[in-house]
């Protein structure tokens, strides 16, 4: 190869590398989330990165890290890292932030919500703003609310039709509140990081788990390791996209506006695809061989009554004023 040809080839290589690296001078922000790269969480995070780059003319780039990689797989630790500025952005669920902000458990109180209209009235209204203000005190600026969804129960032992069917089941749970809920139902809860859960289900370390259909059960292929699913809608779990307050404060007004717009659009997209996945999910899971049980309203009332002690205990921890605000907003949305 001649010198001129070699020089041209080298130049093209350098140019290609620069193109892959992104715009010259672009700042790369790191975003961590809990689940795998096939989930609507990841799709929402990627959409946010695309929109942010577009709206800032390439000045800001987002690198997404699934499975809580940046916190060593510890879902609970991510928010704390953002709060102290060790991590730029986080997409996490309300229940995973309760060790840092106990008030966040309000969203997931058993049988607080009956439908999406009630959910949206709180996440997109005054209750969501109230929780955002509490998170701000911990150094986390909430940009927008997304969706994990209504959590459904799966297991490999038997169909769950009544609260009695939960007794003795070893259940993986995501956070402290769900430990008390499972205890109220007579199950044996084991708090476990999601990255460990699929292996635990495969090996029979736990009998079951509970998670939303569209956001987790289908994209994470839980149906491959679980036989029974009951659509008991017992708890709702929102997610939120948050940025370190210290990072936010460094930005000028135009950049803040661009980030806010990107977050609003990305989380609206994430909520949409999650709900679409949930709507179509029951038929899909049946095709995959899962046995689905859909409780009647009367049967759901039995689960509601059985989990009332856990509701009352956690409502006290959250604060009656916050719970009252949520319940009033829910009542007014009907």
Report the portion of residues in β strands: 15-25%
Number of strands: 9
Biggest sheet details: 7 strands, mixed
**Radius of gyration, Cα only, in angstroms?**
22 Å
Write the layout of secondary structure elements.
Elements: H1 3-21, E1 27-33, H2 40-55, E2 60-65, H3 77-83, E3 89-93, H4 116-123, H5 126-136, E4 140-155, E5 170-173, H6 176-184, E6 188-191, H7 194-203, E7 208-212, H8 213-217, E8 228-244, H9 245-250, H10 253-279, H11 281-287, E9 291-293, H12 297-306, H13 308-318, H14 320-333
Parallel strand pairs: 1-2, 1-3, 5-6, 8-9
Antiparallel strand pairs: 3-8, 4-7, 4-8
Helix pairs in contact: 2-10, 4-14, 6-13
Provide tags for this entry.
about 325 residues; alpha/beta; disordered N terminus; 9 strands
Folded structure, characterized:
It is a single chain. This protein is an alpha/beta fold. The chain is built from 14 helices and nine strands. It has helices at residues 3-21, 40-55, 77-83, 116-123, 126-136, 176-184, 194-203, 213-217, 245-250, 253-279, 281-287, 297-306, 308-318, 320-333, and strands at residues 27-33, 60-65, 89-93, 140-155, 170-173, 188-191, 208-212, 228-244, 291-293. Strands 1, 2, 3, 4, 7, 8 and 9 form a seven-stranded mixed β-sheet that branches. Strands 5-6 form a two-stranded parallel sheet. β5, α6 (176-184) and β6 form a beta-alpha-beta unit. α2 (40-55) runs antiparallel to α10, α4 (116-123) packs across α14 (320-333) and α6 (176-184) packs antiparallel against α13 (308-318). Mean pLDDT is 92; it is low at 1-22.
């Amino acid at each position: 190869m001649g010198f001129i040809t070699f020089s041209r080839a080298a130049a093209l290589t350098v140019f290609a590398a620069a193109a892959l690296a992104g715009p010259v001078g672009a700042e790369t922000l790191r975003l961590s989330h809990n689940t795998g790269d096939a989930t609507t969480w990841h799709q929402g995070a990627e959409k946010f990165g695309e929109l942010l780059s577009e709206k800032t003319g390439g000045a800001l780039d987002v690198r997404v890290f699934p499975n809580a990689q940046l916190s060593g797989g510890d879902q609970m630790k991510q928010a704390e890292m953002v709060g102290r500025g060790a991590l730029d952005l986080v997409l996490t669920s309300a229940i995973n932030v309760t060790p840092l902000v106990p008030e966040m458990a309000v969203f997931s109180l058993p049988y607080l919500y009956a439908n999406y209209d009630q959910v949206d009235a709180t996440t997109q209204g005054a209750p969501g703003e109230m929780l955002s203000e509490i998170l701000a005190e911990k150094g986390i600026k909430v940009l927008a609310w997304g969706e994990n969804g209504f959590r459904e129960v799966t297991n490999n032992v038997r169909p769950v039709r009544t609260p009695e069917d939960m007794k003795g089941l070893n259940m993986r749970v995501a956070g402290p509140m769900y430990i008390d809920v499972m205890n109220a139902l007579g199950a044996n809860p084991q708090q476990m990081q999601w990255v460990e859960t699929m292996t635990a289900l495969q090996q029979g370390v736990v009998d079951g788990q509970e998670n939303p259909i569209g956001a987790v059960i289908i994209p994470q292929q839980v149906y491959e390791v679980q036989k029974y699913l009951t659509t008991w809608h017992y708890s709702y779990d929102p997610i939120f996209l948050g940025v370190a307050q210290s990072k936010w404060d460094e930005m000028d007004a135009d950049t803040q506006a661009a980030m806010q717009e990107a977050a609003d659009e990305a989380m609206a997209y994430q909520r949409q695809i999650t709900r679409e996945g949930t709507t179509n999910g029951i038929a899909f899971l049946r095709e995959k061989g899962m046995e689905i049980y859909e409780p009647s309203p009367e049967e759901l009332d039995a689960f509601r009554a059985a989990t009332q002690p856990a509701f009352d205990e956690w409502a006290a921890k959250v604060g009656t004023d916050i719970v009252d605000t949520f319940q009033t907003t829910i009542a007014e949305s009907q």
